[in-house]
Amino acid sequence: xxxxxxxxxxxxxxxxxxxxxxxxxxxxxxxxxxxxxxxxxxxxxxxxxxxxxxxxxxxxxxxxxxxxxxxxxxxxxxxxxxxxxxxxxxxxxxxxxxxxxxxxxxxxxxxxxxxxxxxxxxxxxxxxxxxxxxxxxxxxxxxxxxxxxxxxxxxxxxxxxxxxxxxxxxxxxxxxxxxxxxxxxxxxxxxxxxxxxxxxxxxxxxxxxxxxxxxxxxxxxxxxxxxxxxxxxxxxxxxxxxxxxxxxxxxxxxxxxxxxxxxxxxxxxxxxx
Length: 273
Ligand SMILES: O=P(O)(O)O[C@H]1O[C@H](CO)[C@@H](O)[C@H]1O
Ligand SMILES: Nc1nc2[nH]cnc2c(=O)[nH]1
Known about the structure:
With about 270 residues, the chain is an alpha/beta fold. The chain contains six helices and nine strands; from the N terminus they run αββββαββαβαβαβα. It has one domain (about 1-270): Nucleoside phosphorylase domain (Rossmann fold, 3-Layer(aba) Sandwich). Helices cover about 30% and strands about 25% of the residues. Helix 1 (about 1-20) crosses helix 2, helix 2 crosses helix 5 and helix 3 packs across helix 6. Guanine (GUN) binds near residues 114, 192 and 210. Keywords: Glycosyltransferase, Phosphoprotein, Transferase. This is Purine nucleoside phosphorylase.
């Protein structure tokens, strides 16, 4: 435990020496959504490879830069690219940045991702507010509890902040942007789901399915950080026709198309919180 805390402290101290000011909100940008970071003004860009104890982003559509600057007039810390369990990292490595954010004084975390649609009313390009999640991945809090961050058995009944969801719904209405709202199912990947698996997670209440986000959210809530999450639906998992093949390239294209709309929404949410 002490060794891990030393690593968190080392990384936090390094970043505190590189970033300007004390951002209260952090953003984790998912596959194909990195262009939101280009809207950050007065940006300090720190490649992950320069950050002690940070992993490297090996997934397609994940640039691998930490960016600090102004979005919506507010100072933010954005991860342009995340770490995934399927890359072969441990859950501690996947969620390492979230605990460093806590040590830097981050109070709010906005997470975005590219996800498959399970709910058959969802179309490619839809944006879904995450109102809850179903965790099908190893829990990142397994092991001795790190008391400096939170309690042994953290409550998860309000994982996704209802006030932030309300703000986002108001913003979307103002901009006449239709939003879905639903449950995100987190699987390890990297294989996409079989038709039976999409159907199975639909039967248990899943609306969208991905391979990230849930570990970061659990660690953020453990540390008392407020969370907002949004998925861009990049493929329709409920097409059980044999001719539909998800080779991932459409995922990035669909996410890229949605990134500009997500930028408008996240910019205004940051300004409000
Ligand atoms: O969840 P993000 O990082 O957006 O990426 C999603 O898209 C990729 C699969 O197409 C996987 O990495 C999945 O997790
Ligand atoms: N697990 C999973 N992750 C995704 N990310 C983008 N699309 C998908 C999908 O269909 N399944």
